[in-house]
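Hello Y.,

Per our agreement to keep a running log of every chain we model this quarter, I'm adding this entry. I've kept the format consistent with earlier entries: sequence first, then predicted structure.
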Amino acid sequence: MIIKIDNSVFDSYFAHEDRDKFYELIEEACKKRRQGKHFIYTEKKNILRILDDDELSGIQKSTLKTVNKELTAFNEELLQTCKIINVINSKYCNVDDFKNEILLDLNRQEFTNDIIPLATLVLENSNDNLVFSKIASFVLKKKNLSNFFTNYHVVLGGGNTMIAECSNFLMTNPLTFAICDSDKKSPECEIGDTAKGVMKVFEKFNKSEHYFQLNVHEVENLLPLCILKETARPEQLPAVKFLEHSAKVQPECYKYYDLKEGFKYNQIWATAEDNVSSYWKGLYEQYAESNRMCYSETYLDGAKLNQSNNVIFNRLSSMLPHAIDKISFFNKEELEPQVLENTWYEVGEKLISWFLAPRAINV
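Predicted structure for the entry above:
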């Protein structure tokens, strides 16, 4: 995240106003920069004008000199795409110029503990961040931003717990963000109750831009096919092979397959067709035809399809935690199936826009 220190802060400093707060801000900003938590942005002249101040410590001056060098090579397009914390002094600027932006006002704010809070990302499951971290690294490399990474604190929710956690954090930390699974099993399905609830919480706090809705059933649908193949046990491979075949026929289906539970016969060949059956039935029938198999003979022992509560192929729930563990070692340049490329970019660019941070430095 970028800390953008407005000229008004330095104007108040040279007018000898709010100097105690100014020094607190400089200490906090320099510390966060050394730790690699935030990037400091301001006009270079502002830094040069305060370096002779004897109130600044040696480590603060060294940090500010490093920041000054970084600003020379800084890509200012990132100011348009990344989340910015604007630090101002409202006595010396027009607050209306900063509408809908995160503000810290030296003139009005009483600083306690961390002046600049660490961004918090609320997720549904403990393994989700392994996938998101890999996606962010992948996209940073593709965008030639390998000298940056993403920095945030993860809080775990899930179900109603996630809704409550988001509400609690938004009340105290303006840098609270969340990502939810869609729980959709086809493009036409509605998003799940958790996603709906979390979205409403962020709307209530006027922070809709801090919420991101995944356009996949669950985080596991972001795993590349090669990881599923190498992790699946023999009895689980038929499900992976079906998904591989179907993704070639209808690429988007890779995002909506229920990897944990699979689909049951009475979901696909439902008496009353719904969004799930209408989307998946043709893919299952085409796969059976191409592989010369008959679901009823092989799996049902003569039972009627719409009366069967059996799962087509096996569930993959037991292998998915192991598959997610392998994502950290994924180092291929291309993704399979191809449909993941756009999805990874969409997720990665959102994470980068929220949490872009420079590498830690020693001064």
